[in-house]
Structure of Peptidoglycan-recognition protein:
Amino acid sequence: MEVLKLIFLLFVISPLKAATVSQCDVVPLAQWGGSESNRKTELSKPVNLVIIQHTVSQECYTDDDCERIANGIRNYQMEILNYDDIGQSFLIGGNGKIYEGAGWRVGAHTRGYNDRSISLSFMGDFRDKLPTPQALQVAEDFLNCAVYKNDLAMNYYLVGHQQLTFTLSPGAALQNLIQSWPHWVKDVSQV
């Protein structure tokens, strides 16, 4: 009976998990933003630096609200800031979904680090409170999946945006939390 369970796990559940892992459950930009990314330069993989940010926008808890806010961020960056496309690599909603921005292409999120890092940007303002448990869990799941796929190095560094540039991002509450995450480094001279 145990052998049958093992066979079931290997041939039925493993392919289902692989299908989920293949894209790390990221909502593609074309799906939420209506078009493919204008960013074309791929990052060299595996990437070894993850920068945690917040968007200082409204928070979102539903798919519709998160897509509306993500589109607002994208439109602002393209129409007002004259970016080629959205600058953040990935956006994380309070609904527990992660949205592709620049993705694994060179973005425009942290001057001096764009060509060798990804950003995970939590939608909302996290100076005084934390993102939802669902948002924090999807961030953890994404990082683990990205390592599994070799998009992210096993020994990657994780920092808060404020550690690399003059900003309050990712907010004091979120910065305090990420300092307990695996891979967080205090000394940014290592990165």
